[in-house]
Amino acid sequence: MIQSQISKAAEATPEPVARRIRGLSDRSIAWIFVAPTIFLLLAVNIYPLLRTIWLSFTNYRVNRPNNDVDWVGLRNYERILSDPDIWNTMQATAHFLFWTILIQVLIGFTLAYLINKKFKGNNLWTTIIVLPMMLSPAVVGNFWTFLYQPQIGLFNYAVGFLTGTDPASFSMIGDVNLAPWAIVIADTWMWTPFVMLICLAGLRSIPESLYEAAECDRASHWRQFWTITVPMVLPFLMLAVLFRGIENFKMFDLVVQLTGGGPGSVTELTSINLKREAFEKWRTGYSSAYAVILFVTVFGLASIYVKALNKVKQR
Amino acid sequence: MNAFIRGLLDIRRGPWEMVASVLIGVGVLMLMQPFWMTLYTYSFIVILVGTVMFLTVSHFPE
């Protein structure tokens, strides 16, 4: 049936076209298949990157397209790297990155370790734990603002219930000391299941025979944990840290919905600050330089991280 | 230590990648530390040198 359809299609192909296809080498056919992808990559990734680098050396403003574009050299970079406000956003991002990754890895690994134990309702618990990850960050940001309400928020009520303080006496998103922790808690709630899933995949890939051999050698559970479980899960953990690190470095939607960068600018992460420079102040050249700095930083970190990951995998 | 220096002189990938990685790490710490503005100012050039070095030396022989 299929053979006859192929024959029919071959007969229907006009002779000049058929001759041209017959004359193509394997290499040419491979290029025909790969060319659309390369074209898309060039159009969507490479060209915008090169254009951004070029714009970062100019005073271009996208809201004034008729103005002359002057070459300003390294002035945009100099201004960014001597601006105390941008330095503050870098520190806010560092705080957010460090604590979210640390807490998510600790809780995610613990949850994965517990879920990996065989018990009744194991799959149901996995599904329940994974639910936050399936929500939109904008939705999560929105409903955490309700949870953090001093008067009616469940979070404040729970803290008040556990510590005995008045729930209305503190505001997680209105206090300059608490707001950085408010975004850490919301992000941890949303993305810990992701780290847990990756750790669970690592734990399930450990052959049972390793534990049996350790049992024969009378190794304690503590020793088995440190000499079998942790080294075998380490590549997976590093992968989770890489993914979360890159994602949180460009975190935008959740934090914008939750705090909008405030109070003041204590939760203004680099991506939020960059968006303000680019699309509220319309300083396109300046914000291009800012984007290039962030790009080089993430690219450099990702390079050494991938190298470390390969080393761990080879062990 | 000697092997590391010999690796650098013989243009081997391992030690040079180590140098580039340290530069990137130090640059990121300089970028995000809250203590000294001068360190922040020079952080990007350190990261950039480290990243370009990393891309270059990853083509060196093992």
From TrEMBL, chain A:
CDD domains per UniProt: TM_PBP2
Cellular localisation: Cell membrane
Membrane topology: Multi-pass membrane protein
InterPro entries assigned to the protein according to its UniProt record, in alphabetical order: MalF_N (IPR035277), MetI-like (IPR000515), MetI-like_sf (IPR035906), Sugar_ABC_transporter (IPR052730)
PROSITE patterns: ABC_TM1
Superkingdom classification of source: Bacteria
TM helices/strands, residue ranges: 29-50, 96-115, 127-147, 178-203, 224-246, 288-306
Chief localization: membrane
Alphabetic keyword roster: Membrane, Transmembrane, Transmembrane helix, Transport
UniProt xrefs under Pfam families: BPD_transp_1
Domain ABC transmembrane type-1: 90-305
Family of this protein: Belongs to the binding-protein-dependent transport system permease family.
Designated name of the protein: Sugar ABC transporter permease
From TrEMBL, chain B:
Transmembrane segments: 16-36, 42-60
Keywords associated with the record: Membrane, Transmembrane, Transmembrane helix
Record's protein name: Uncharacterized protein
